[in-house]
Amino acid sequence: MSDIAHSTVTLDGHFAREFKEMAIPWRAEEAPDPDLLVLNEPLAAELSLDPAFLRSPEGLLLLIGNALPAEASPVAQAYAGHQFGWYASRLGDGRALLLGEIRHADGQLRDLHLKGSGRTPFARNGDGQAVVGPMLREFIVSESMHALNIPTTRSLAVVATGRSVQRETLLPGAILTRVASSHLRVGSFQYAGSTGDTGLLRRLADYALDRHYPTAVEAENRYLALLQGVISAQAALVAQWMLVGFVHGVMNTDNMTISGETLDYGPCAFMEGFDPAVVYSSIDETGRYAYRNQPLVAEWNLARLAESLLPLLHDDQEQAVDLAVEALGEFRRQYSGTWSAGMKAKLGLHEGLDDEVTSPLVDELVALLQESRADYTSFFRHLGKAARGQAETARSQVSDPAAFDDWVARWRALAPDADSMDGVNPVYIPRNHLVEEALTAATAGNTGPLKQLMDAVASPFDERPGLERYAAPAPDSFGPYRTFCGT
Ligand code: AMP
Ligand code: MG
């Protein structure tokens, strides 16, 4: 482990300094033969990091935490969490590290974080490693979400370590360099709350307010305002997932952020044929995290956050509970509001149109999609053509063309705006078969397909000739899709 003093990299250690109870100083394991697989140059620029430097041997060592500025104080963060409904009082970064905070061009701090950087004191039985496929999957899907204007942690780089990692077979190891508004989770508050140290809980809440909800400190009850802020942010986030057909796959409370960014891309996937019950995670046997359950689970997770915050909401516990319940009641209203507005936008309908007119149209369309198992993404894109009078492609995707014709006639009478539809209905999402193709090739040493896929999903609304295969659903031969957790 060497230190570097590269003048352009300033890593603060704010969390490490202020939250010693929740941060274990730790160092990344040394990688035997680091090799940069992919670098996010636009994101590097936003962080004032020179891509040429990051590509240099010294820069590579920074990206994997093997050579850090002298002032850096990397830590493994402690957190608790409900996993599939079961409470674990001590999870924490078992294979991850917070390197420190770095200033973004927007003036806000970002966490610079590693995933796959070796065992930490939180590792339990885990090996501390991550492998190329899943780290590239997070890179692809998180950057795709960003391009879709959905709040998310970002991916700066994936570096192969040169180490072989035992999974079902031996696989090449890798480290993801992740950038986030913070890594504060519902599980961070569960951890702080469970210590019984209200001082720690208050400091953590103040830190979250400072980083994510600075205007909430003006509120009469700033901790209630924090809870309300997280509820709003998560209601909006999950509504956006639903609108784009995204299934997170492992919505444990330790994977739900305080910032409202999507966190932790494990067994996630974009839905193809519309099926509200769809589950992609191989370990989600009961379908707890199925597409249609996501708003309910988010609400359940936020109730866990509210419980943790109770001692800060009011000195009188009964009154604290009343405040929490009232705040949680807002989730459904805000979720439904964002979802309905988003559906209107997907249909190109003027936002001023009365919900009593638009809701039945939306409901009928959703029923038609479900009955037809129509490809969710391409159907909405083709609907843009239908708004221009060319309904044939969308019509060919439904099982009841007569019902569709009737629906289109009523919809077009409301004058849908085709151009605005094209700005919200993506052409390119990271389709599962293309992600698998890119990961398989990259694991075997060829990052060409990964780069082509990234090109497509980086501008999801901009249809380009030559990229037709990136807009098409998986061939039938691809079969039902499953992804695997925690690898
Ligand atoms: P996740 O399912 O990725 O959100 O991880 C849940 C918990 O398991 C976290 O505490 C992780 O740090 C830990 N974990 C997952 N995989 C590993 C691994 N290979 N080695 C050590 N800890 C791990
Ligand atoms: Mg996690």
Automatic annotation (TrEMBL):
Protein's job: Nucleotidyltransferase involved in the post-translational modification of proteins. It can catalyze the addition of adenosine monophosphate (AMP) or uridine monophosphate (UMP) to a protein, resulting in modifications known as AMPylation and UMPylation.
Organism: Arthrobacter oryzae
Residues involved in Mg(2+) binding: 255, 264
Active site, renumbered: 254
EC numbers on record: 2.7.7.-, 2.7.7.108
Binding site for ATP: 92, 94-95, 115, 127-128, 178, 185, 264
Catalytic activity reported: L-histidyl-[protein] + UTP = N(tele)-(5'-uridylyl)-L-histidyl-[protein] + diphosphate; L-threonyl-[protein] + ATP = 3-O-(5'-adenylyl)-L-threonyl-[protein] + diphosphate; L-tyrosyl-[protein] + UTP = O-(5'-uridylyl)-L-tyrosyl-[protein] + diphosphate; L-seryl-[protein] + UTP = O-(5'-uridylyl)-L-seryl-[protein] + diphosphate
GO molecular function per UniProt: AMPylase activity; ATP binding; magnesium ion binding; manganese ion binding
Cofactor (UniProt): Mg(2+); Mn(2+)
Family, similarity comment: Belongs to the SELO family.
UniProt name for this protein: Protein nucleotidyltransferase YdiU
NCBIfam families, per database record: PRK00029.1 (NF000658)
Keywords, comma-separated and alphabetical: ATP-binding, Magnesium, Manganese, Metal-binding, Nucleotide-binding, Nucleotidyltransferase, Transferase
PANTHER family listed in its UniProt record: PROTEIN ADENYLYLTRANSFERASE SELO, MITOCHONDRIAL (PTHR32057)
